[in-house]
Amino acid sequence: MISITGKVISGYGVASGKGKDNRYPEGTLKLQMPFFKERGLDLSDFFIGTINIDISPYQFTVRKYKYYFKEINWSIYIPPENFYFFEVQLIFKESVFNGLIYMPDPKTKSDHHQISNLFELLMPKIEGIKQGENIILKLRENDFNFMIKSPKT
Description:
Elements: E1 2-9, H1 28-38, E2 51-54, E3 58-62, E4 67-72, E5 81-92, E6 95-104, E7 118-122, E8 134-139, E9 144-148
């Protein structure tokens, strides 16, 4: 396992339904979860929403994933998407939480694009975690390549 530090940041709120996307009033995750479950990934133990972690100054590329689901046709509003999932541990205030990195494939994602230094985490409900909190992530060593993000010129 490797460790990387990050900071909790706000997201679009679409996964949880707290955002302003009227197409998904209960959130995208609630609509996607049955498709993942029928393919062997039960997310019912996790909070229905993501914790967004900025890992700046690092950015990443995918090497190896725990789960990959292709052409999930979960929405009538957008084309089918591919999804990656990776095992992760989040350390917050000396407590360790087990979860998954949830990653719609950028090649098939039609809207709500994410930056290359952001992980979206699926976790059990974590009391007290909020925007601006510093955390530590523990990741499987072969899942990602990390590099320092060069400053914009």
